[in-house]
Amino acid sequence: MNESIDTRCVHAGREDFSRLGVHAPPIDLSTTYPVPDLDVGTASFDALVGGAASAANPIYARLHNPTVARVENAIAQLEGAEACVAYGSGMAALTALLLVSRQRGAHMLAVRPVYGTSDHLLSSGLTGLECEFVRADEIAARIRPDTALVLIETPANPTLDLVDIAAVVAAAGTVPVVVDSSFATPILQNPLAFGARYVLHSATKFLGGHGDVIAGVIACSETDAKPLRTMRAATGALLHPLAAYLLHRGLSTLALRVERAQRNAIELAQRLAQHAAVRKVFFPGLGTVRNDAVLKTQMRGPGALMALDLHGGHAAAAAVMGAVRILTPAVSLGAVDTLIQHPAGLTHRVLDDAARAECGITPGMLRISVGIECVDDLWADLQQALAVAERTTRMPQAA
Ligand SMILES: *Cc1c(COP(=O)(O)O)cnc(C)c1O
User: Does the pTM of the predicted model rise above 0.70?
Assistant: First the structure.
């Protein structure tokens, strides 16, 4: 497709609507499909278990579902990928990729920080891969003959550090690189264009966009999609067709939501940087995140996530969480409403103290996922919540 990404968000995965005579994606809830011709059924079964995107007969919903395939096709178009494979969550998608990669070797590299549960999955060795955490500039030196995968997250959760995708791809040589691009969305960044082999999204976040779907996707080449589909069929980490429908509906407003949320975030980041209670605002473009310069070369905008470090430390952060009225004090991100959470106490709780310190996650850090509300209402709410925090932390200790 040559259309702009705004048009693709609205139309991708809907190309056959006029032929079908529909205006919304049909939802197919079948768990099994009739097999009147056994030869066709057998050939279809072999093809789907082997990782084919579709077959003459879908056979069984763990092997193929047309509603899921439709949203996969749409997301592949947004990422400029040949294929996309959807799972029941972002973590299920990452697990499938790790299990597939385990067949290439037993070692992998990752650059911190990453999403807390991704960090947990990688450090635990649960999938049989030994993960070494390195700095981006150490990758070339740490690649081993059995290194199966390099994982980066950019912008990274929760510090908004950026990682230079092209530099990591060059350092990794023949080892595949996966980019968790959940914070950027395909609106702001297309990692495959910089040589990444896989793009991973927690589609629970911006792609779904309304806080009502848990989903994960990996966009990649058709060759790389086949083993991922085989793994999905074997392990059953499926996306339900009703969730696929909601995800597809969310995609149609993705460009609009990201644009508006980003505009709000740029405004709030500037105002928060001037606030007396705020020690530092981490936001791409402000010069406060690692590799800030790659914002201009690999992204089309800074996005809608930021982190604050408060002078008042943990007590101030807790006070803000308790005082906000329009912002929702909750984990997750990328929804239409603004969410605020405390990485050290919630999303990155599973890291040990040393790993949290290495990632730059402080007790006074709050992460904000800016939504599409009126920015002045968000600012007023943050001002009153920060005022509560300032009073709380200034209060003399009770005798
Ligand atoms: C939320 C998140 C995940 C995990 O996705 P789920 O859909 O919650 O399983 C992975 N990576 C990033 C960057 C995330 O924010």
Answer: yes
